[in-house]
Amino acid sequence: MKNCWLFLAILLLSWVQPLTAATASRPNVLFIAFDDLNDWTGCLGGHPQAKTPNLDRFAQSSVLFRNAHCAAPACNPSRAAIFSGIPPYRSGIYQNQQKLRDVLPDAVLLPKHFSNNGYWSAGSGKMLHYIIDPRSWDEYFPEKEKDNPFPRTFYPKQRPVSLPVGGPWQYVETDWAALDVTDEEFGGDWLVTKWIREQLQQKHDKPFFLACGIYRPHEPWFVPKKYFEPFPLESIQPGPGYLADDLNDVPPEGQKLGRNRYFEHIQLQGQWKQGIQAYLASIYFADAMFGRVMEALDKSPYRDNTIVVVWSDHGWQLGEKEHWQKFTGWRMGTRVPLIIRVPKNTPGLPAGTSAGGVCDRPVSLTSLYRTLTDLCGLPATNNREASQQSLVPLLKDPAASWSEPAITQLHLPNAYSVSAEKWRFIHYSKDQEELYDIAHDPYEWTNLLHGATSTAHRKIADELRSRGPTRTVPIPEMPISSLPELDWHPINAGKASASKPDGNQFEVVFINRQNRPVELFWMTPEGNVKSYGKIATKKQKRMSTRPGAVWQIRSEKGNELGHFVVGDRAATAIIPGGVE
Predict the structure, then answer these.
(1) Is 129 one of the catalytic residues?
(2) How confident is the model over 270-317, as pLDDT tens digits?
(3) pLDDT tens, position by position, 193-211
(4) Could you give the count of Cα atoms lying within 13 Å of 546 in the half-sphere of its Cβ?
(5) Which residue in 47, 69, 113, 129 is the catalytic one?
(6) CATH 2.60.40.780 location in the chain
(7) Fold topology of 29-406
(8) Which residue in 43, 70, 75, 359 is the catalytic one?
């Protein structure tokens, strides 16, 4: 009988020990994001003057994806796709103005999924779009309860510094300057990486998912002046993808996206070289902050059991296609750095990654959720809309067979780009399209569908179109509670002036909190008034308008009560009670 119990005890231990060992061997994850970083890195060769020694060194120890593309060329939809695993055309998050939890109230984001499976999930800096989403993290810096991912950052008191504001259409942060401060005095990303370094020096009882959001090179391009010094202004060159009049063979919808006024304004102000210089300096600063994190990891006890994933949310154009900013479907807007290093003995890839691996297969950042759960031996998300594509086969063999293209969703459900290994296809509304032979035309200078008669090119376009988004969902209406509120200017503060409409259209919701009806008037550019009807008491009215438009409110008796000046995005305009 004693021998029987001994046998059972040994059998039980044989079951328990592998489970315990498997749990203990789970790798840590260091998830590092750059904001608005295109391919201007040494390892991707995007600009000959770019200085990214730390990224380049890391790429030599990892697998570099040279054909990686964002889920969307805008922060919010791109980051939402990465952290939920759901592409924009399935989630409905297409634009920056939307709020993550309005559209995906129940989605289990990547850090929460890791927490639910035995990890400690913590982060610092911008990982989501200007929010932290406290429910998704065990710990955060700055404190997650404030839901603001930005620590103190030194900015000049008088702004703008370099680029005058061209109109209400211009993003207020589009500006640059070399600051006479140290990295520590600057704060921002230095404080973010300081906190991440501290976590890497501590002992953790659980494996960790640690996220580091490096905000530069996002605007404004203010960084300490020492990062400007390697880029003398007289030496600055445009990016190699720049070609004058490069929109001539692009369809009207593409031209509309391209000519967003920034590049023209920057050239008129004589700030093109200065802008490129500041972007390069901001990249150099961001790379230095990345180097601080990697130095801390290399000196930590977690060096040999931590998966490191480095990515950027989307690209950036500095004059290519006559465009300055993001939001386009061209390669400069969609191609991003993606570098992954996997240590040996990782459950999903026991051999780890080979140093210096290079993969030219087209991949999407939306695949990172499934890739990390596969690598760490965690269950996949149970959200049916999430991408089931994993990059593990390419991490194992960067030259492995790969049939999937990378889809980048633009701001509308029917606008997107498809990246294959040798071809790129862009589809706009009104069925306007572009096709580029990336193997021979990496900067997309020649649209092969412009006046095309080639049957072969049409067939390629048809094939890539068939690989585009399927079962797209419409853009959900944004809840009024999530819209920013325009300032109310009562009549005693001054009368309404003429409108100066300048920019794209969007909606403003006028809400009447008066106990009587009011009448809504648009101030014309000539200073006249045009009625758009009455708004009943406690009711609302949606109006399509533009930045710089002025809307006047009058009482039933025709007395002016006050006015609103429209900003650069959708908003509410609340007419307060008791103003007459």
Answers:
(1) yes
(2) 999 999 999 999 999 999 999 999 999 999 999 999 999 999 999 999
(3) 999 999 999 999 999 999 9
(4) 13
(5) 129
(6) 480-575
(7) Alkaline Phosphatase, subunit A (3.40.720)
(8) 75
